[in-house]
Structure formats: C-alpha cells, structure tokens
Design brief:
This protein is mainly α and 123 residues long. The protein has a domain at 27-95. The chain contains 5 helices and no strands. It has helices spanning 2-11, 23-48, 53-65, 71-74, 89-122. The chain is elongated. The chain starts with a helix and ends with a helix.
Length: 123
C-alpha cells in the first residue's frame, strides 16, 4: 500500500531536469482518463441498469418480506429465477460491492493523505 502511495505521489512531483511538457505523461493521462470513465460507466450501469438494477430487486424483495406479495407472484412456477424480476441479481450485487469497495478505498486513501498533510502543516 505504501509503495502504491509513493508511486502516486511521485507522479505529481516535478523534477528540474524534466521538460515542462512531457508527451508520454500526457498520453498516459488521456488513456487513464478514458479507462477510468469507461470503468465508472460499466460499474454504475451494471449496478443500476442491468436487468432492472439493484433497486428493482431490493424493492421486489421488500414486497415479499413485508408480505404484500408472494414469492410465486414474482417468480412464475416452473420457470427459473433468471426469467423473473430477480434476473441478473448476481451482477447487480457484485457491481454494488465493487462500488462500495472503491468508495472505501478512496476514503481511506484521501483520509490518510490529508490527515498526514494537516499534521505537517500544524508543526
């Protein structure tokens, strides 16, 4: 983890012997931004849209657990769960877990980075 933080910190530090405009760094930045935007779109689409999204499954499960509907009304008899309102639940769940993991990592990373910076400013 420290090695990753050091690499990320070294990306933004300037050295005097480097040129002001580095085309390789600019190209890497463009590729990184496109990759990150695609990853963010894919994760959010999988969690919120694919096969009805996670909120559709949560609301249907809530209807069953609260007793407003029966399981047999949402999952027709003789048909697999994959053709019901719960189809795609595994992909939605995995994408939601990945979203929470990314948010937790970013929170941990920035919390550690900014708390260390604040301690240095106070001294």
């Amino acid at each position: 983890m420290k090695n990753l933080q050091e690499k990320l910190k070294n990306i933004f530090t300037e050295k005097e012997d480097e040129p002001q405009y580095d085309p390789q760094m600019f190209g890497a930045m463009v590729v990184g931004v496109i990759f990150t935007a695609g990853l963010l779109f894919w994760i959010l689409w999988t969690a919120l849209v694919y096969q009805g999204g996670i909120f559709g499954k949560i609301s249907a499960l809530w209807l069953v657990l609260s007793g407003q509907k029966k399981w047999s009304e949402l999952v027709p008899a003789g048909l697999p769960v994959s053709v019901s309102v719960f189809s795609g639940w595994l992909a939605n769940l995995v994408a939601t877990i990945v979203i929470f993991a990314i948010v937790a990592f970013l929170y941990y990373f920035y919390q550690k980075r900014f708390s260390a910076r604040d301690k240095n400013e106070l001294q």
